[in-house]
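We emphasize that the prediction below concerns an isolated chain of 354 residues; any contacts that depend on oligomerization or on bound cofactors are therefore not represented. The input was used exactly as deposited, without trimming of termini.
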Amino acid sequence: MAPSRRPTLLDVARAAGVSRSSVSYAFTRPERVSPDLLTRVQAAAARLGYAGPDPAAATLRRGRAGAIGVLFTEALSYAFSDPAAVLFLQGIASGGERADVALTLLPVPPSTPSTPAALAAIRGSVIDGAIVYSLPEAHPAVLALAARRLPLVRVDMDPAPGARVVRIEDEGGARAVAGHVLERGHRTLGVLADRLSDDDHRGPAGPARRRAATFPVARWRLAGYAAALRASGIDPDAVPLYDCAGSTVEHGRAGAHALLAQTPRPTALLAMTDQLAFGALRAAADLGLDVPGELAVAGFDDLPDAALADPPLTTVHQDHAEKGATAARLLIDEPAGAPRELVLPTRLVRRGSV
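Result of the prediction step, given as a token string:
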């Protein structure tokens, strides 16, 4: 038996005895029709089982989707669980709400960055532009999105010709926090990196892997640490680094255990994110190490929980929400071809973990 035909907007118009445009306004601009007409259209639509105009067709007619995409290199759950990502997305949402623009999340975890399904989702996403969040310029998802020639704003990424970029003073912040640790007398350090490259590697990272890092934020923060170490007469390549392949407390805990098992044992850990630093504090507790008496721990982000940690976490402050709001403003308000780079400040926050 052939399936019954789906009701159309014209069917509703005929049943209600009104024009097609009246039905369209009743669904898309109800404030522009009278209460009586709205009631008639809704009643006719209910009788026919008509749910409203096709959003895709409406998008084609308007020439715009009314939505912006956010491309990032983690699983979708990351966007709702990582405190830094939550603050960043809140900033984007605040800018989008003012412009009556919706958000479409486009996750590309390292395990699936170039699968046909992942790239098809990016190519087929119904968006007017996108914010690309902390990805290598040559990442397959970035290339797929750039090929659509939509307006883009890159966040925490390298400058590119004609591109709009929002980033923070990563290298300066990293140099400041490493310098503070060194000023306190520490000479045997370890580094916890959230992710150097998009290959999902987890484990120790030697000098060659560090120099081949594809994530700009990792490169910048490593450069800041290295500058402070060299200024204190320490070879950065001699400092052990653990690539955690993610930024969660458990990632940091596992990485810290690996670093603290080395001989000589580090007396200080530099974590590229606060989440990793929280994990390092847990590892210290697991091992019965006093912080900061036997181990100093420093993070980067100044998340709300950093001041509440035990002991309170020394870290580098950045305004994640403002970074997101700035990216949204650049994407929504600036002319599409206007190149612009905005570098937001960071500052060292000294607390009890160092």
